[in-house]
Write a structure and sequence with these properties.
Elements lengths: L1 H26 L9 E10 L14 E11 L6 E3 L6 E5 L2 E6 L2 E5 L5 E2 L5 E2 L5 E4 L2 E2 L10 E2 L4 E4 L2 E5 L2 E3 L7 E4 L2 E3 L5 E2 L4 E5 L1 E3 L5 H39 L1
Antiparallel strand pairs: 1-2, 3-19, 4-18, 5-6, 5-9, 5-14, 7-8, 9-10, 11-12, 12-13, 14-17, 15-16
Length: about 250
Amino acid sequence: MQNALFIGVSSQVALQRELDVIANNMANVSTTGFKGRNARFQEYLMPVASADSFQARDRRVSYVIDQGTTLDLAQGAIEQTGNPLHVALRGEAFLTVQTPQGLRYTRNGAFELDARGNLVTSDGHAVQGEAGAITLGPQETGVAIGPDGTISTSLGVRGRIRLVTFANPQQLKNEGANLYSATAQPQPAGIAGRLESGALERSNIRPVVEMTRLMDVNRSYTMVSSMISRLDDMRGTAIRRLADVA
């Protein structure tokens, strides 16, 4: 009976984790360039939790282990905005930005110019080019961003946006504000990432799918809670009957 309770608790912990992941996905349905995550679980067979001494041997006890989350790199919908400073990323590349914590990576292509003419994201992080930050003068007009990230104005080519990829993007860590950090060294994106000017990549979250997952998780959690409650009642009944016999 104790094993059943432990299994139920491990399931509830895993379901709570999945609920947190779904909630975060739903909260970022409208976040530009957001990539959803999926909870990942693994069955763990307890090697010593068995009762082989009984005539009818018990099955091995199987617990649920939280194996973290996986990053869904599926392409989000491309929405035309007509803003020449907006770019939508196609492929698995990431934009490089400078933050107070160091270099970070994002899919947020909603660029703008700050008061000093620096190209920044909508959160104010400086967009990095191959030679560092990209700055445009007040006299420059006709800003255009090419598919490879080349930025041109009335004064000619002004730089190229740094696009990078990772050998294992699943190792990227969410830092909040639609940013990722990486322990591995990024590589130049090359043809693995292209930009579409005058457009934005929307979140790849599908609300209907997430709502379905949410209902499934709630249903499973309720079933496990009910099972634990019944087991607790059975244990209480067994204790009372043993007391009566004694």
